[in-house]
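Incident log, entry 3
Record: Catalase (534 residues)
Problem: checksum mismatch between cached and fresh output.
Input:
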Amino acid sequence: AGIHDQKMMRGNGGELHQTAGDGTPVLTTAQGGPVADDQNSLRVGARGPLLVDDFHFREKIFHFDHERIPERVVHARGYGAHGFFETYESLAAYTRADIFQRAGEKTPAFVRFSTVAGNKGSFDLARDVRGFAVKLYTQEGNWDIVGNNIPVFFIQDAIRFPDMVHAVKQEPDRGFPQAQSAHDNFWDFISLTPESMHMIMWIMSDRAIPRSFRFMEGFGVHTFRLVNAKGETTFVKFHWKPKLGLQSVAWNEAVKINGADPDYHRRDLWNAIQAGNFPEWELCLQLFDQDFADGFDFDILDPTKIIPEEVLPAKPVGRLVLDRMPDNFFAETEQVAFMTQSVPPGIDFSNDPLLQGRNFSYLDTQLKRLGSPNFTHIPINAPKCPFHHFQQDGHMAMRNPVGRANYQPNSWGEGPRESPADGFPHFPAEEQGRKARLRPESFADHYSQARQFYISQTPPEQRHIAAALTFELSKVETPVIRERMVSHLMNIDETLANTVAAKLGFRSMPEPADAAVPTRQDLDPSPALSIVQR
Ligand code: HEM
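Fresh output:
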């Protein structure tokens, strides 16, 4: 009787549903068995022990015990939304990518914004770079532009990434801090890494405490290639520009907001989209060729450099609109798997050593995090275009080859075949050189663009940078690290260096830093050594 009065009803599609008497569905086990009592375990007597034949309790607790998957090793805290990308005009002259062939074409998109350093439960308004990862479900497969809201990066070579991330996250002995850059390990690594100085200027600026995701730019960071149907290539940098413009909070606002509402950025995106205020970005391209690249005194393969838009304007080629929140945070925002190596024909890579390392890393991380090579079977990761392959089996396989043939070529006339004309062509760049671990001389200038960024800021923005550096370095307990940082600032802007040094109580200024990455010998921990030796 009552709510357990179970009946079978036919749904709209004629399917049978188990329903309780009032028309609501009956609670079932994962095997579909109807549940009579979900409140009390099976036991002997009112105060007796529980019984192992309570398969409903066993299954319910078993599933709960396995709810967590590893959080992302970086960018653990994120928030996503669905939308679409609309192409403004054909870019066939530059790329054969189907997404750019027809004006007005709309491509489904999913975007995940994130902080980098904090764990999944950290607060939104940390001083940090924000991830800006875009998955475009094109007719030729998924294209992931896995970018950030800052156009440059800390390091020039992916081999340094594990060290950089170890240094930025919580210190291994004490387990803090998180989502907060002010600590000795972070500033130790940075002070020993002159190539990070340009990024540090951006991180200390208001860009690192955005008012909301809707007021942020996004950048592909690296130089990529476009390749057209004739096989001609153009270098490209990808930029997302918010229709609402750029806005940040002040540091004291960020600190208060983090205490009062750690989900501030999530709430903002949710509220905006639910209210129909769909945030929008324009995709803008900086397009250039090898001759143009050769005209710079920096290397366009160096991810710590930008190409100034005053020199090369960014051409708007389409718009990204976010208009729908996920139905389920875990299924979509958590399980989405971005990978820099997911590119359609017509988009290709440059020899940026950070990009090439990333292309290797993301597949590994998705296997670790999602647990099966079949992570592309999860709906948020599956392509939305037709796809056919012979990959089979493995944990949680939702799709296997149909029919007899699971290989090609075969004599049965079954299954897909490769297509030289349509398939991804890999741009046939000519490469030669000696095999060695080295960094080109063209990657050596670490200060010019840091200085240009600082100078480009308005006086209040410059004061914010000085205040941020002072606050951060005042938390650093090891004097030599502070001195090393001030010695780098002297190469960026002397007034900035003097201001920070004065606020930190320096009695005299150190020598300007050497740009070279310090050697073991430089790091001799003898007490006499107060700054990196030159
Ligand atoms: C995750 C951007 C450098 C490895 C991410 C995410 C973004 C991102 C946006 C979060 C994706 C999401 O929302 O799910 C960048 C940018 C970089 C950079 C812009 C430099 C320009 C690197 C490098 C490596 C790396 C050099 C390794 C060699 C990872 C890993 C994850 C990640 C392992 C976690 C992915 C996951 O578990 O889903 N990165 N990253 N990243 N990145 Fe990077």
